[in-house]
Inverse folding.
C-alpha cells in the first residue's frame, strides 16, 4: 500500500498561482480601483510564468468582475472589485464571531499541517517556505504589505503536508485568511512578531522537527488571537 507521503503531489496550476497573487494585491490595496495593471508581458516576467497562464488568470478575474479588460487600453482593477461567490458567501469576515471562528479553525488545522510538512517536505518545499519567510521578514521590517509571501508560506506548508484532503480544506479558507491579513497587519508589533514566528516555523520544517513545527504554528496563532482580543477589549473600554 502506498503511504500518503509517497503519493504524487497535487500542486496548483500556474494560472491559479497568478490568480492568488493578483487577488492579494487587490485585497491589500496595493492596486486601487481603476488602477491600470502592468502588461501581460511584464506580469509574466515578474511572476516567472508563461504568457498563457497570465492571460488565463486575467480572463478568470475579469469574469469574476475583479478586473476590467479594455481593448486597446489595457487591464484595470474594477471600480468596485468584489470577491467571487464561494463557500463563505453569507459570512461577513468583519463580524467579530466570524473572525474568531476563522482563527479557531486555523488553530485546529494548521499546527497539524506544519507537523506533517516537517515530516514530508521535499527540498523544493523547504526552499519555497524559507524564501517566503525571508521575504515576509524584509517587507515587515520595511512596513510594506507582506500578504503575498505570507499566504505563499501557508499554502506551501499545506502542500508540503502532502495530504490532498487537508490541502483542499486549507484552500477553502485562504480567501478569508487573505482578508484577515488586512486586519492583523494593522495591529501594533504584529508584523514583526508574525515574521519571526514564520522564520522559526520554516527552520523547524527544514530540520524535519514535527513537534517543534506544530508547537510554533500553534503559538503563532495563539499570539494573533491574544492580540486581537486585547485590541477588542481596549476598543470596548469607555473613553475618559
Amino acid at each position: 500500500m502506498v503511504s500518503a507521503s509517497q503519493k504524487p503531489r497535487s500542486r496548483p496550476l500556474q494560472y491559479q498561482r497568478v490568480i492568488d497573487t493578483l487577488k492579494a494585491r487587490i485585497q491589500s490595496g496595493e492596486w486601487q480601483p481603476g488602477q491600470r495593471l502592468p502588461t501581460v508581458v511584464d506580469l509574466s516576467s515578474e511572476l516567472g510564468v508563461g504568457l498563457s497562464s497570465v492571460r488565463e488568470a486575467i480572463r478568470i478575474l475579469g469574469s469574476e468582475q475583479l478586473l476590467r479588460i479594455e481593448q486597446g487600453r489595457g487591464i484595470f482593477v474594477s471600480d468596485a472589485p468584489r470577491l467571487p461567490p464561494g463557500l463563505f458567501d453569507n459570512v461577513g469576515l468583519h463580524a467579530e464571531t466570524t473572525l474568531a471562528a476563522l482563527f479557531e479553525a486555523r488553530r485546529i488545522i494548521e499546527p497539524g499541517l506544519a507537523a506533517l510538512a516537517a515530516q514530508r517536505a521535499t527540498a523544493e518545499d523547504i526552499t519555497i517556505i524559507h524564501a517566503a519567510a525571508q521575504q515576509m521578514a524584509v517587507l515587515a521590517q520595511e512596513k510594506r504589505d507582506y500578504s503575498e509571501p505570507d499566504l505563499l508560506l501557508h499554502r506551501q506548508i499545506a502542500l508540503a503536508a502532502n495530504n490532498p484532503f487537508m490541502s483542499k480544506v486549507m484552500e477553502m479558507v485562504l480567501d478569508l485568511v487573505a482578508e484577515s491579513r488586512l486586519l492583523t497587519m494593522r495591529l501594533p508589533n504584529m508584523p514583526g512578531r508574525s515574521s519571526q514566528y514564520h522564520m522559526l516555523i520554516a527552520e523547524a520544517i527544514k530540520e524535519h522537527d514535527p513537534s517543534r513545527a506544530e508547537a510554533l504554528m500553534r503559538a503563532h496563532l495563539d499570539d494573533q488571537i491574544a492580540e486581537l482580543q486585547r485590541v477588542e477589549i481596549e476598543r470596548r473600554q469607555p473613553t475618559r
